[in-house]
Write a structure and sequence with these properties.
This protein is mainly alpha-helical and 340 residues long. 69% of the residues lie in helices and 2% in strands. Strand 1 and strand 2 form a beta hairpin. Helix 1 crosses helix 10, helix 3 packs across helix 10 and helix 4 packs parallel to helix 12. The radius of gyration is 20 Å and the shape is globular.
């Protein structure tokens, strides 16, 4: 990766990514799921907002869109083509073309919403985040442009419009059919992106962070967030709580980062101290791991391949397989340029 990276942010993304995969691969319900879902997807959008550019830093809308498409949509398309190829192999082996068509139509639909299931498609899977983030960036650029001439309170207006769009999408989404291209998910998540952008420019006072952190436990107990389905229960509570959970993760990972920096200065290389570095690596390459996690989930590798191997294969190891696949494609010519 080029440039100087912030290890704190990489640790945040890495830990949240591992928690997400655990939720997908191991059936979790109750307090564990409520805890993880209270902040893990908002965290990714908030961090994306932290690195969002102001409109003055964007050369042109066309160049901005092309860059976003290469960064976010191209990995989605390549991964879905891999699934189509695997589906073709399955279709040939079982003489059932539906295996191939299922993946092909799912790629074209690019839908994230499993609550409005139609036609038995697999949807975008965890990669809905990439498509939604693409739209979030495009929509946020439009909001910035609309508010560019406001000399006073322009940035506050940008955040206000983003939150309004998010609230409206959460209200109307249950009454709409399943929409393609993760449009509603993007509108639901744009508020978190805007908050990340705003707080990076104007850090909140300590009491603002403290308030969000104090709200977080109540959000875990009484709120609910399913950004994949554009759903936030008790919107203000869930929204503020997610911000508080993200800040707690920031403080935790900042402490870990400083500890690792200290450990490196005194040249301690014990194996147990390498685990945080693994999380940071996962955060650094969260995009290919997310894509390979989707491939592992929807390629039916567990049933097609792993059950034929005379070893015990627990579903939880699917996360390790996704990380291994990501490592392989990062070493593969051409593919590594797509996923980096």
């Amino acid at each position: 990766m080029k440039g100087q990276r912030n290890e704190t942010y990489d640790l945040m993304k890495g830990i949240a990514l591992i928690l997400m995969m655990l939720c997908h691969l191991v059936y979790t319900d109750g307090p564990v799921k409520q805890f993880i879902y209270s902040f893990h997807m908002p965290l990714f959008f908030i961090l994306a907002g932290v690195f969002a550019k102001d409109i003055t830093q964007i050369p042109s809308f066309k160049q901005y869109t092309i860059k976003n498409a290469k960064r976010l949509l191209l990995p989605y398309v390549v991964t879905m083509l891999m699934l189509c190829a695997w589906g073709g192999i399955q279709a040939f082996a079982k003489q059932d073309i539906s295996f191939f068509l299922r993946h092909l139509f799912s790629m074209l639909a690019a839908s994230a919403d499993g609550w409005h299931s139609q036609w038995g498609l697999i949807y975008a899977g965890p990669m809905w985040f990439l498509i939604a983030l693409f739209w979030v960036r495009e929509i946020f650029y439009g909001i910035q442009r609309a508010c560019a001439r406001m000399l006073k309170y322009g940035d506050e207006c940008i955040v206000g419009i983003s939150i309004l769009l998010s609230v409206l999408s959460v209200i109307v989404h249950p009454y709409l059919p399943s929409l393609p291209f993760c449009i509603m998910q993007a509108f639901a998540a744009i508020a978190f992106y805007a908050i990340g952008w705003y707080v990076h420019k104007y850090p909140m006072p300590w009491w603002g962070y403290a308030f969000c952190v104090l709200v977080w436990p109540f959000a875990i107990l009484y709120g609910s967030i399913e950004l994949e389905s554009a759903y936030l229960a008790f919107y203000p509570l869930s929204f503020i709580g997610a911000c508080g959970g993200t800040y707690v993760m920031y403080l935790l990972c900042k402490g870990i980062s400083r500890f690792l920096e200290y450990v490196r200065t005194i040249n301690i290389t014990h194996r147990t101290l390498q685990m945080p570095s693994l999380f940071a690596w996962c955060g650094m390459y969260s995009l290919p791991i997310l894509c390979m996690h989707t491939f592992e989930m929807y390629s039916d590798l567990y049933y097609s391949v792993m059950c034929r191997i005379p070893i015990t294969y627990e579903r939880v190891w699917g996360g390790a397989i996704a990380i291994l696949f990501a490592y392989i494609i990062l070493k593969t010519p051409y593919l590594k340029d797509v996923y980096k």
